[in-house]
Amino acid sequence: MVQKWPWNWNAIIVTLIFLKLLIIFKPKSLFPITSTAPSSHPFKSNPSFSCAPPHHSYPFCNTSLPIKTRAQSLVSLLTLHEKIHLLSNNASAIPRLGLSAYEWWSESLHGIASNGPGVSFSGPIRAATSFPQVLLTTASFNKSLWFSVGRAIGFEGRAMYNEGQSGLTFWAPNINIFRDPRWGRGQETSGEDPMVASAYAVEYVKGLQGEDLVGGDGGFMVSACCKHYTAYDLENWGDFRSFSFNAMVSKQDMEDTYQPPFQSCIEEGGATCLMCSYNRVNGVPSCADLDLLQRARRDWGFKGYITSDCDAVAVIYEDHKYAKAPEDAVADVIKAGMDINCGTYLLRYTQLALEQGQIQEEDINRALSNLFSVQLLLGLFNGDPSKGHFGKLGREDVCTPEHKKLAIDAARQGIVLLKNDKNLLPLKRMTITSLAIIGPSANDSSQLGGDYTGVPCNPISLFEGLQRYIKATYASGCGGTRCNSSDGFAEAIQISREADAVVVVAGLDLSQEDEGRDRTSLLLPGKQMDLISAVSSASERPIILILLGGGPIDVSFAKVNPQIGSILWIGYPGEAGGQAVAEIIFGEFNPGGRLPITWYPESFSSVPMDDMSLRPDPSRGYPGRTYRFYTGEVVYEFGYGLTYSNITYKFISVPDNITVSNTTSKSGPSKLTTHKTLDGIDYINVNEIASCNLLKFEVQISVFNHGDMDASHVIMLFGRASTSIRGAPRKTLIEFTRVHTESLNAIQVNIGIDPCKHFSIVNDDGVKILPLGNHLLMLEGMEHSISIEL
Which of 345, 439, 635, 731 is 20 to 30 A from 488 via CA? Predict the structure, then answer.
C-alpha cells in the first residue's frame, strides 16, 4: 500500500514562485557577492574570466611555465571545431576548459574609441580622454609627448577592460605614410616622412603596451597593433577602391619609405600585433603574401599575432578576384602566416579548406599559438585579473586630471602658426574687448575629434574656449562645412564689423575626409573661401583664420591677403582644442608646432592618386611626392611653422670629415668594396660595414631665443648628398627634438648622427648604400659640409 503524504499544493506553488523570483533578482542579503572580477569581454561573461576555479589547474593556467609551453598546452586541449571558432575577432568561449569569450577588436588611435565591438561606453565608464588626432600630435615633434599620450591611453584601456568595457588588444597605431594629400585617413597618420612615422610608432607603442611597468616578469598592459601592412593609402578615388586596389610599388620606394615605419614599430617598439591591409602589393593581397608577412617574423623578429583588416580575407575573393573560391582565400592567408580574421571567412570556410587538403591542422595550431602567446602576455590566462599587475585600474583612472591636462598640452604643442603678419597674434586683452567668431565648426565640439574618436571627457568648442577670455559673438556663416549657401554671410559680416577682432574657423570635417572617403580637391569646401573673403573685407582689422582638418588645404588666397593677418592650423585638436586655441590666441602659450606634411597647391589634384611612385618622372610630367622628392610648388613646406619669438641657430661643433675604416667589413679584416652608381658616384653597401657604431658623432647647436616670450621650440636637422645622385632624396630629415628656450637666452643642443643610417640612401634594387664624398647638414638656412671618406 502506498502511503499518501498530506501535500498542500497551493503552498508548494507559492513557494516555488518565490524561490524563482529570488534566483532572478538575487537580493544581496541572501546572495552575497563573493567576487568582483570583471568579465573578460563586455558582452559575454560565461565564464567570467579564463582559468577561474575549477579550471585553474590546467597547465596553460600555470604562470610558472614558459609562455610557449602554456600556449602549446592550450592548443593541444582543443578540438578542431573549437580551434576554428577561435580564428575570428569574436572568439568563442570554451566553457569546458574555462576559457571566456574574447573580442580582439578594440580601437585606441588617439584615445579609446567606439569603433568596433570591443569597446562600450554604456557601463560605469561613460567617456575617455580624447587626445588630438594623430597628425596634430605629430606636429609637436615631441617624442616624450608621444610616449606620454600612448601611456595615458594604455592606462585607460586597461581600466576599461577591468570594468568590462573593452578588450586588451587595441588596433593602433596607423603608421602608413601620408603619401597623397587627398587621402581621407591621412589625419590618422604621423605624416609623410618615414623617419617621423617610425619614431612616432616606437614611442606610441612603448607607451601604450607598458612593458616597462611589468618589471622582470614579462607581459604587457595592453597590446598595440602596427597597421595597415603595407603601402595602404587610398580609400575611394576615381575608379579605385581600397578593397580592390593594387599598389604597384618599386623596391626602392618600398625599402626607402613604405616599410621603415613597420620595421621600427616591431624591432624598436616591440609591437605585439601586425595588421595586413586590404590592398594588393604588386599583384598579391597583403594578407596572402607569404614573403611580406614572413619578413616581419624572419627579419624583424616579430613574435606577436597577425590579424587581417576587417573583411580583408573576404575581399581577396570578392573584390580582388585573386582566389577562385572563398576556401582558397582562407587557405592563402593561413599559409601566408595570418593568424586571425577580423570577419567571418575563417569561421565559415576553414573546415572546407582542411577537407580539400589546402591547409593542415598544424597551420591552425601555429596561428592559435601566436594568438594565445599574446593573450598570455596580457595575463588573460592568469586567473582573477583583479589580482594581476594592473588589476587595480578602474573607472577612477579614466578622464583623470593628469590625462585631461596632457590632452591640452598635446593640442598646444601641435598647433601650427602659418602666418602672423605684423605680429597680429597674440591678441592683447587690454586693447581687444570684443571678438567675433565665425564658422560652422566654431561652436561644435563634436567636430574637433576627427575619425576613430570615442566619447570625450569634457569637450570644449572653439567658441566656448575663446568666450572664457573675452566677450564674444558667434555666427555660423554657413549651414555646415560643405557651405553650399551664402545665406548666413550677412550675419557673419555684421558681427565682424562690430567686433574689435575677428576669428574665422574654416576647413574640413569627416564629411570631407574619412575612412572610405578621399578628397577630390585641395581647396576649401563650397563657399568657405567666399565667406572668408567677405568677412575679411568687412572687418576693420585683419582677421585670424583658423583651419580645422587633417589633409592639406590650398589657402594661397589667404596667404597673400593682407586682410588675413594670421593663420593657425589646428588639425583635429581633440576634447581640449577650444582651450588650447584660446591660450595661443591670447598669448598664454607660444606656438611651436611644425607641419608634418607638405601643403600642395590645387594643381596637385590632377596627379593620379593611384600612382604610388614617390620619385619624380619629368618624362611624363610627374612631380613626385612628399617633401623628399616633390619638385613642384608648395603652399607650405614640410616642417614649416612660426612662433611668437625670433629663434636663431649656430653650429658649435660638427666634424668636417668621417673616415670609414678599410678593415671594417662584416666578412672579416678585409677591405671594403666600393661600387659606383649610374652617376659615377662611389658608394659602400651599408650591410657590409661592421663599424657603423664607430662612425657615430654628435652635432652641437646653439639655439637663441631673441623674443620676449619663452618658447617650446622644434629643431629639425636635414641632410642630403651634395652631389646629385639619381633617385636620392632632395633632402631628408635626419633628426628632430623639441626644447624649451627662455626669452633672451641661448641653450646648447646635442643631436646624434649615425652616418650609416642618416647619410645612406636606397638604390633601385632596394639596397641601402652609403655614398662617399660630401654630405650637407642643413638647419634653418645654414649648411655644413661633411666628407665621407674611405
Answer: 635
